[in-house]
Amino acid sequence: METLRLTMAQALVKHLQVQFTVIDGVEMPLFGGVWAIFGHGNVAGIGEALAQVKNEFTTFRAHNEQGMALAACAYAKQHRCQRIMACTSSIGPGATNMITAAGLAMANRLPVLFLPGDVFATRTPDPVLQQVEHFNDPTMSVNDCFRPVSRYFDRINRPEQLITSLPAAINTMLDPITCGPATLALPQDVQAMVFDFPTSFFAKKVHKLRRNRTDVDQLAAAVDAIKKAKKPLILLGGGVHYSLAVEEAKAFIEQYHIPACETQAGKGALAWDHKFNLGSVGVTGSSAANAAAQEADLIIAIGTRLQDFTSASRTLFANPDHTLLSLNVTPFDAEKHRSLPLVGDAKVTLQELMAELGDHLTPSSWVDHVHALNQTWLSAVDQATALPTQANDKHYLPTDANVIGVINRFASVDSTIVQAAGGLPGELHKLWRTSSDLGYHVEYGFSCMGYELAGGLGVKMAAPEREVIVMVGDGSYLMLNSEIATSVMLGLKLTIVVLDNRGYACINRLQQACGGEPFNNLLQNCHTVEAGAPKTDFAAHAKALGAASEKVACLAELEAALVRARASDKTYVIAIDTDPMPSTQAGGAWWDVAVPEVSTRNTVTNAEHQYKIAKQQQPY
């Protein structure tokens, strides 16, 4: 057998280099590179291996391990899970910094390869710098924290273990059913160990999107349910994007005249002004979509995890005779909510459904009814996002909806909006209008504060031809902003709009909705020195990180600043003060947030009473 004598780290990197994927008929490397912050646990091993191929396989240097890993998540999401990045760190805080991003990748079913350094497999120098010792288990390190947030986990304690484990990790990440993060913990001594690897381990491999077909009996049951339905409604989930089934979903909707709505992950699958698009659904849904969901006798959920925001904590589908038909690539998701399961790839299953449904049509009375509901909703969006009369008033604090309206009118079909946490995802889900399936990138499976700026970086890496606009609140900005400097360093231009409402406004509103007093969320309600919390100059801070920036005092100035941002040749940050209290009330549905059963506050007691009434809508 022909072999190649390499260190384990060299073999790992070489194997990654020969993995390829096919996108739109074009063959390209599966891995877009490696994010790395080196420390004593990875600099000598994998660091040296990466340095040897730096001209063929790019290593990107970040400023924060969580930030680089979040960028890798966004890269995979924007590439619809067809391309991957790897992330390597040192053995201690570098590794644990990536765990939040691993959780995000796990929740959102995104492929990222985590390669944290680890303690010595030989244990000879134990305890080494950054090692966390367990008195009763010397085999455990901080990397074991990756286990619950990894689809695949292994610790490579011998070089030859890589031969079976690395392909298994890649296979796990690329399989639509198991797609998610994989972690290979790399003991620092094993990284440097040599082994005679078979040359077959470095043979080129081309991966293609796998499409599993549905069971014939499940398909027949689905066809029967669709034909019997008088009031069907489609829920478009993220799986429509990841299956590359946007055109099939559109054709299915148009062929059978079935109204559709979108989850956060599914938004953009249908153009906002499509005649059958009722907009967002669920807790952050449109009035039209939610009214239709309450009346529908058949809900066809395509590629969605049916999380609580989508189902309004299991209260949205209120028709007592409704059927929930769940088309999903994974049985785990297809069986949720006592659904009628249709397990299969969205693209090919929609094609098979169309082959069986023939000339079936949804009753026109239902279509006309929901169309009228949608016209009312579209008018509400127009009103919420319209430029207010105070556009030039520097004393007026704009709402999130005001700012969204300005940015949405500025954006083009080639723009991608990026957001993640706080109140903005809800406002964007309701109000943002996109005509492109690549135009809406909001991470709401993990709702990770700090994703926005790093995520914008990952989106720009995946789609350098697109204009990437990041909307971020002051809370998320302060939590993780260092990758602004990385974007400047790499020449990956972002337009960033910072909405400064002086605190965590969304959770402050939720706190009060549950009867609580405003406490520890807005800066004015926090424990501070007598002078209060400082007013952060976000424009000055961004400039210090290398970006171009400015502070605007009103919506009219924001409009002009966006034009300057588009003309800039590097990342451009615009800061604007906003009102922390208003949010769009139209649409929306109930969300199960437990309220204390005992409290000295009457507002909490009243909220708990209303909470118990609302919970009676749940089936169990």
Tell me what the structure shows:
The structure is a single chain. The chain is of the alpha/beta class and 620 residues long. It has three domains: 3-207, Thiamin diphosphate (ThDP)-binding fold, Pyr/PP domains (Rossmann fold, 3-Layer(aba) Sandwich); 216-377, 3-Layer(aba) Sandwich (Rossmann fold); 386-577, Thiamin diphosphate (ThDP)-binding fold, Pyr/PP domains (Rossmann fold), CATH 3.40.50.970. It has a six-stranded parallel β-sheet, with helices on both faces. It has a six-stranded parallel β-sheet with strand order 14-13-12-15-16-17, sandwiched between helices. Helix 10 runs parallel beside helix 14 and helix 16 (400-410) packs across helix 17 (424-431). The longest helix is centred in the middle third of the chain and has 22 residues, at 364-385.
Shape: globular
Helix content: 25-40%
Count of helices?
24
CATH architectural arrangement of the largest domain = 3-Layer(aba) Sandwich
Count of the separate structural domains = 3
Instruction: Note the main sheet.
Output: 6 strands, parallel
* Overall pLDDT metric: 97
Which strand order do you get reading across the main beta sheet? 5-4-6-7-9-8
CATH class annotation of the largest domain? Alpha Beta
The CATH topology of the largest domain corresponds to Rossmann fold
Low-confidence stretches: none
CATH superfamily of the largest domain: Thiamin diphosphate (ThDP)-binding fold, Pyr/PP domains
Content of β-strand: 15-25%
Structural class: alpha/beta
Rg is 25 Å
What is the terminal separation in angstroms? 61 Å
